[in-house]
Amino acid sequence: MSNNSSKNGAGSVKTDTVDESRLVFRAAIVSRLIVLGLIVFWRSLLSPYDTSASLNLNCITSDSTDPSPLHSVLWPSIGAVIEESIVWDGVYFVRIAQCGYEYEQTYAFLPLLPICIFILSRTVFAPFIPLIGYRAVLGLSGYVLNNIAFVFAAVCFYRLSVIILKDTGAAFRASILFCFNPASIFYSSIYTESLYSLLSIGGLYHFICGSNITSILLLALSSSARSNGVLNAGYICFQTMHRAYDAIFEKKRPSLAVLVLIAGAVRSLCIFAPFIGFQVYGYYNICLGRLPDEMRPWCKARLPLLYDYIQSHYWGVGFLRYFQLKQLPNFLLASPILCFAFCSILYHAMLRPKIVFSLGFGASDEEKSVATVFYSLGTDRGSKDAEFLDNVPSKVLRGHTLRQRKQKSKPETHDSFQNPLPSGDHACLPEKTGYFSILVLPFVLHLGFMAATAFFVMHVQVATRFLSASPVLYWFASYVMVSPGTSRRWGYFIWAYSAAYILIGSLLFSNFYPFT
């Protein structure tokens, strides 16, 4: 009877997880339809500030790469509407997909999104070229790709959250917040946010599940979508550091630590490889075969890094270079997301100072035993990794479900998300669950580095979308919304902030006004 109960409990948890995953999938679709609807509404209601987005000059490398000249397009008005909706960085991505990298400054835009747009435009959407024109098809390909990518990114986010937080309710709330995040306009436009989120969150999900090859492949692809994808190597470094420590001090095997360090270095290098390869590609196209007096300044540098030069030379990106009085409105625009990131990091550090300031080395053996993916080499590798993907949610929550049923008459404790926790010998402390789990620590450190970079180095207004892919923000928001120590006003504030930025962003951004 006990075995049957166990199976029934596991099956119930599995069913709940699947049901909520479907709800997240539907919520992600609804959120994209709302944002796309707002784009259409604002575009039809207002005139764009800049109408140059629809200009389509011939590619430099050839007279015309458009397989469908304008005079032969059957529905030019529809094509014109799509082309006019391509604004801001979307202009660059579509141009690169059509013509390749023509100018030095275009190398600031990494190649994965343009490659995907080009492939879709010549395959799936190729039949539309005679109808609306090639550039419109490129734009359509980008819109469809990014909105579909976002939907699957939301599902991956939910599944990752279930494993990290060990709480389906908290994971569901955080996922819904992600679906309606304040940077939503960028996830439905021709930007890299959706593709990057899918690859980085999906890669971290497989990384937590022990699928090393899949995770490294996805995280490497994320660094070919956005430059900050290379920061995902930090998770590998964090794991390698703790596993090397485990090998030396716990298992007393220094030789094993060397192998761990080598494996971690190789995996980190794989994540860096696409970004490095793209820099080499830029050096080959711009620097090689030129006389010394014809070479660009960055070509002569000891470490010729094209991306850094472009960001500094063309956009003025650099440490404290944005700290000017005239940029105060941009700091105010970014202040909500930066303040929330700071609060999420500070709150985690205040309640778990020993864990945070020791970088996880101060965690107890009990905590490390449920976070072996980061903190120890473990003993259950090999064939069990293949089963981890399906078994983690049920294993994590099965005991919780059964003990909760058996101990309904006993006093209950609650986790940080106000869900009942089992009492007795196997009870775990509230601060060791949910947002305060040591599994969250690497994500908090990652967010801290990104937030500091956004504030001190980058154009600060991009912080809203730059940080929007960080799971910590939504996990903390989910905690704040139900924590007994906070007011319900915080929940209203979070939703009001997201709704306001979705409305304002879709209005300003889609009409070529500055936003973030």
TrEMBL record:
Tell me any Pfam family this protein matches.
Mannosyl_trans2
Sorted UniProt keywords: Endoplasmic reticulum, Glycosyltransferase, GPI-anchor biosynthesis, Membrane, Transferase, Transmembrane, Transmembrane helix
- The answer to whether keyword Disulfide bond applies is no
Any one GO cellular component localisation term in the record:
endoplasmic reticulum membrane
Q: Name one GO molecular function term.
A: alpha-1,6-mannosyltransferase activity
Tell me the enzyme class: transferase
| Compartments, as annotated in UniProt | Endoplasmic reticulum membrane
Predominantly, its location class is endoplasmic reticulum
* Pathway entry: Glycolipid biosynthesis; glycosylphosphatidylinositol-anchor biosynthesis
Q: Does the keyword Hydrolase apply?
A: no
The annotated region (Disordered) lies at 401-421
State which Enzyme Commission number(s) the record gives.
Answer: 2.4.1.-
Membrane topology summary? Multi-pass membrane protein
Record-stated family? Belongs to the PIGV family.
Q: What does this protein do?
A: Mannosyltransferase involved in glycosylphosphatidylinositol-anchor biosynthesis.
Q: By what name is this protein known?
A: GPI mannosyltransferase 2
Q: Which organism is it from?
A: Protea cynaroides
